[in-house]
Each structure stands twice: as structure tokens, then as C-alpha cells.
Design a protein that fits this description.
The complex is a heterodimer of chains A (279) and B (289).
Chain A (H helix, E strand, L loop, with lengths): L20 E2 L2 E2 L6 E9 L4 E9 L6 H11 L19 E4 L2 E4 L14 E4 L6 E3 L2 E2 L2 H8 L18 H10 L7 H5 L1 H4 L10 H11 L9 H5 L12 H5 L6 H17 L2 H8 L8
Parallel strand pairs in A: 3-7
Antiparallel strand pairs in A: 1-2, 3-4, 5-6, 5-7, 8-9
Chain B lengths: L43 H23 L4 E2 L2 E2 L7 H4 L1 H6 L11 H9 L1 H10 L13 H6 L14 H21 L2 E2 L2 E5 H18 L2 H9 L8 H17 L2 H23 L6 E4 L3 E4 L3
Antiparallel strand pairs in B: 1-2, 3-4, 4-5, 5-6
The chains are: A alpha+beta (279), B alpha+beta (289).
């Protein structure tokens, strides 16, 4: 890990990685060097630059970035904190897939080709691998917080059956990889119309909470734009906490919206004043 | 990284919030068709899905237009189930050119077409919005995209009604399975019985693993412990949730089972293949029809 190599010349031992399968990952041969193609620049201009990094056993992509910073590119900007896949800071796109750099093992990547690292493309780049994710915070402010039935918390009795759905959603580390991969935000730029998967998860955690009193369905349909999701499940695929975002949050929200807005029987009941309040 | 929580009521709509400018660096562009840095074979899944669904659609179109060889002995092709000719004989005598399948196929078509799993497949494979995760859609798709907020895709929100109709299909499939044990020579189990049975079981698994059914069972509840009925519903919800995890598998398995059942019954009815049956008390019989 201590040596550094010229960025424009192949390392003498490059591409010598072993391909032995071992527990679903590849055992990396000693002396293997990986070639990285890393985005350097800002939102307006930048280019992919090549770096070579020796690979050690157990190494993750964030280790490689640290090696580049220590040896070849001290000005390479990358956000990170815990290096334990719990802070959600080191989100980037590795070989085109939104991933946490600290959770992507080198022995899970093909080392015979350059590994690309780019910033999350759905958000404006500040510098190199660092993006401005503040839009997410503005969205979050729009969600009415948990509003319990009573201020008297001593009388709250919660059973495991009632909170286990919500507990899954509480695993979210706000890495915003789901927001990055969501094509509604990433490709169609519907940031004004759709809150994105992360906030569908938050809305689901609140709407399904047995003690929450706010009727959120109109906000979920209109302001949050749940109808913009077309269930392609990419958010679920990239979630490092393995939250079943689509199946357990978005689809249930769509069904709740359908209860009120797309159910002719429900509409008839509403017209006759027979609908019971959900909360 | 945790987000702050403030009162939402006083904030302007999201559309009035100024967002930072988009990336204009050529190396960060994402909205051209197929643009991606993924080196893996991401295109295999959409290509296979298109091939399978187009192949199935072409076969079904041909099979229902035949209006023949869909019924032999105790077997009825699932494409023609329920057999309306049996229930409305005068209608089909008056309109002999009308295939009864035309009058029933819209139910499975709408149920499958609005299925949450099928939507994932269709949006990825046919509409390419997107073809795969972190793969760019076309610029036209980006410009026109409205999700499921407007017609025709807003129809997807009616999936639960097609689920109700699919329950009727499931009922008839089980009826056909019972019928499939009763050969002209007696009661028995034949290859055709097994073919019809596999189709019936996979259709049942597919329909009852539906996301809308999950919601109606108890997903719509906020409190699972508020009454004895809610507790029962929660128990059913948990079991159904396990089934729901494999909803996509059942989609494909039941599609393949429908296809094979129609092929088998069509071939037996046209005399190309011979069914083999073990008749209770009589032994093995080949070509019972």
C-alpha cells in the first residue's frame, strides 16, 4: 500500500489478478495492481484520470481512493467518514453502479479492466467525487414529522408486530444511492415533482406508524409524486442496507393512494360521506 | 448524514425550491439511450424478457385465433378457460367465427399487464425507462416521462380490480384440474392431469402472491394488534409476504405453464401426441381418447 506508480505507465504486475473463486469473491494474488479511472473536475468540466493502486487482501474501493490521495492525487476530493457502511457518506458510482466505496470489495470487481469511479450523477458535482446532495434535505423538510396521538408518552404501548415494518425503514443511512439510481431523478430530472425512494421510505415509515395521526395520502400522491415511480426496483438493488424499498414502501404507498383516489367504490363511499377517517 | 425534521406546513411547494444546476460536464452525462459505465452484461435481462414475452404473445395470438383443438376429453386449454362455449352455446352457434378465448383473455392480459412485477419487466424491456439500473433512457423518453400519473399508465393503479377477476380464473382452473382426473374410461392420473395441475398450481401461486392482495389482506392497516380480526389478518399477511417475495418467479413459471399446457392439449387434440394415463383399477392406458 505504500508504493506509488506513474499514472501513465502500466504497472509491471498489472492485470495479474488471480481468478480463484473463494466464497463468492476472488482471491487476489499478491502484487496485483488495479487500474482506476476516476472523475476529476467540477459540474461544468472534468475528465477521467487514470491511477494505479496495488491491491491487498480485504481491500475496498475507499482504500484505493485513500491510496490515490496519499500517493498520486492529494487534491482528490472524496467524502467519507465511518468506513463501515453506516454513515452513508462515501456514495459514488463504481463501474457505473451506485455503491458505497467502503462496502465495495476489490476482490468483487473485475481487475483485468480499469475500474471507473465517478460521483453520483443525479446530483451536482462540487469537486471530483463530492456531490451537492442538499436537495434531499430540502425535500426532507417538506415531510410533516411524526405526529403522535398523544403527548403522554407513558401511555404508548407498541407491539413488535406493529412496528416491525417501520423498523426496516429505520435502517436507512441516507447514503442517497437510491435517489441517485432512480431514473425519475437521475434521467428525467423530476426533482420538482418526485421526492424519490429515500423519502418514500420515510413517508411509509410515518404513514404506517400506528401512533401517527397525520393523514398523508394527499401529500404522498400530489407533493411527493408517488405516481412517478414505475417500479423498476433499481432503488432496492442498490440499497446497502437491503431495505425492500419498492416492495415494502413504494408499492404499499401506491396501494394506499389507490384506496382513496383510484377505487370507484371508495369514491362512491366518499361522495356519500361513508368513508371512515384513516387515522 | 441524518436529515433535519422541521415543520412542513410553512414551506413553499417543492417546485418553488431552487435546486443546484445540473452537471454539464460531458463525462457526467446520463440521458442518452444506453449511456452507462457498467461493464457487465446488463442488456441480457431486457433482451431475454422481450424475446420471451414477444414469443409468448405471438404464440397466444396464433393459438386463440385457431378456435380449434383446445378441448379434448377432460382437458381444456388454459387460454380458453373458462369455456364460454359451454355456458353460452347459442352465442357461439350464432357467431361460429368467434373464438371463445377472445372473450376471456382480456382478464389475464390486464391482470398480468398491470402486475407490479410485470411493470418492472415492461418498463425496463419495452419502454427502456430505464433498460437497467444506471443505464440511460432515450432523450425522448426523458422528455415525455410522466410515470403512472397520467393515462394510459395511470390504469396501472386499477390492478386490484384485475386481481378480483383473476380470482375467478383461479376458481375455474381448479375446476378444470378436478375435471382432468375424469377420463372417459374412468378416474385416473395422466400426463395431461399433471400438465393441467402444474398450470393450476403456478397460476394460484402467482395470483395469491400479488402485491394488491398483500395490501388488501392487512398491508393497509396501521395497527395489526388492535383487534382479534386484525391479528388474524396480520398472520395471513406475514405468510403472504413470504409468497410475495417470489412473485416474479411465479409470473414466469405460470406463463411457461400456461404455454406448455396449451401446447400439450393442442397436440393431443390434434392427434400428434398421445396422452398416457394410469386409470385406477384398470392400469396404464395409452391414447385414451
Amino acid at each position: 500500500m505504500a508504493c506509488s506508480h506513474p499514472t501513465n505507465a502500466p504497472h509491471p504486475k498489472a492485470n495479474s489478478a488471480s481468478t480463484t473463486i473463494k466464497g463468492g469473491t476472488k482471491a487476489v494474488a499478491e502484487g496485483t495492481v488495479a487500474t482506476f479511472s476516476v472523475y476529476r473536475g467540477t459540474a461544468e468540466s472534468g475528465e477521467m484520470k487514470t491511477y494505479q493502486v496495488p491491491v491487498a487482501e480485504g481491500m475496498v474501493v475507499l482504500d484505493a481512493v485513500h491510496h490515490m490521495q496519499a500517493n498520486d492525487a492529494p487534491d482528490l476530493a472524496a467524502r467519507w467518514n465511518c468506513k463501515a457502511a453506516k454513515c452513508g457518506s462515501c456514495s459514488a458510482e463504481i463501474n457505473g453502479k451506485p455503491s458505497l466505496m467502503c462496502k465495495t470489495r476489490m476482490d468483487a470487481l473485475p481487475l483485468d479492466e480499469p475500474i471507473t469511479i465517478t460521483p453520483m450523477k443525479a446530483f451536482p458535482v462540487l469537486k471530483d467525487l463530492v456531490t451537492d446532495v442538499s436537495w434531499n434535505y430540502r425535500v426532507n423538510e417538506r415531510i410533516t414529522p411524526f405526529t403522535p396521538k398523544s403527548d403522554d408518552t407513558d401511555n404508548w404501548t407498541l407491539y413488535q408486530e406493529d412496528v416491525e415494518r417501520v423498523q426496516e425503514f429505520r435502517k436507512c443511512i441516507e447514503c442517497f444511492l437510491c435517489q441517485d439510481v432512480c431514473h425519475v431523478i437521475r434521467n428525467h430530472d423530476k426533482k420538482n415533482d418526485f421526492y424519490g425512494p429515500r423519502f418514500m421510505v420515510r413517508l411509509a415509515s410515518l404513514d404506517m406508524h400506528p401512533l401517527d395521526t397525520v393523514d398523508r395520502l394527499q401529500a404522498i400522491k400530489e407533493e411527493a409524486g408517488v405516481g412517478f415511480c414505475n417500479i423498476t426496483k433499481c432503488c432496492t438493488e442498490v440499497c446497502p442496507e437491503h431495505i425492500h424499498i419498492t416492495d415494502n414502501a413504494i408499492i404499499p404507498l401506491k396501494e394506499r393512494v389507490a384506496d382513496r383516489y383510484f377505487d370507484p367504490i371508495g369514491k362512491l363511499k366518499g361522495a356519500l360521506g361513508l368513508n371512515k377517517s384513516r387515522k | 448524514m441524518s436529515s433535519s425534521q422541521t415543520s412542513a406546513s410553512s414551506l413553499p411547494p417543492l417546485s418553488e425550491v431552487k435546486t443546484a444546476s445540473l452537471n454539464t460536464s460531458p463525462a457526467l452525462q446520463v440521458s442518452t439511450l444506453g449511456s452507462t459505465e457498467r461493464p457487465d452484461a446488463w442488456w441480457i435481462e431486457p433482451v431475454l424478457s422481450v424475446a420471451a414475452l414477444l414469443g409468448f404473445s405471438v404464440y397466444v395470438t396464433w393459438a386463440v385465433s385457431q378456435n380449434a383443438n383446445y378441448h379434448i376429453g377432460p382437458f381444456l386449454s388454459p387460454l380458453y378457460s373458462p369455456n364460454l362455449q359451454e355456458y353460452f352455446p347459442k352465442l357461439f352457434q350464432a357467431l361460429p367465427w368467434l373464438s371463445p378465448a377472445y372473450l376471456v383473455l382480456w382478464v389475464p392480459l390486464l391482470f398480468r399487464g398491470t402486475c407490479y412485477y410485470a411493470r418492472r419487466v415492461a418498463y425496463r424491456s419495452f419502454l427502456m425507462t430505464p433498460s437497467a439500473c444506471a443505464v440511460g433512457p432515450s432523450e425522448t423518453a426523458s422528455a415525455l416521462y410522466e410515470g403512472e400519473t397520467k393515462f394510459p399508465f395511470a390504469v396501472m393503479n386499477l390492478h386490484r380490480y384485475f386481481f378480483y377477476l383473476a380470482l375467478v380464473l383461479v376458481f375455474f382452473h381448479w375446476k378444470h384440474l378436478v375435471d382432468a382426473f375424469f377420463y372417459p374410461q374412468g378416474v385416473g392420473v395422466g400426463i395431461g392431469t399433471l400438465v393441467v395441475g402444474i398450470d393450476t398450481v403456478f397460476l394460484t401461486l402467482y395470483v395469491f402472491s400479488c402485491h394488491s392482495w398483500r395490501h388488501l389482506l392487512a398491508g393497509k392497516l396501521d395497527c395489526f394488534t388492535c383487534s382479534a380480526v386484525d391479528k388474524m389478518r396480520h398472520g395471513a399477511y406475514k405468510r403472504q409476504s413470504k409468497l410475495n417475495e417470489s412473485h416474479g418467479h411465479y409470473f414466469w413459471f405460470s406463463l411457461a405453464a400456461v404455454w406448455f399446457a396449451d401446447v400439450y392439449i393442442r397436440q393431443v387434440a390434434s392427434g400428434n401426441w398421445h396422452d398416457t394415463v394410469y386409470l385406477f383399477g384398470q392400469g396404464l392406458t395409452t391414447n385414451p381418447f
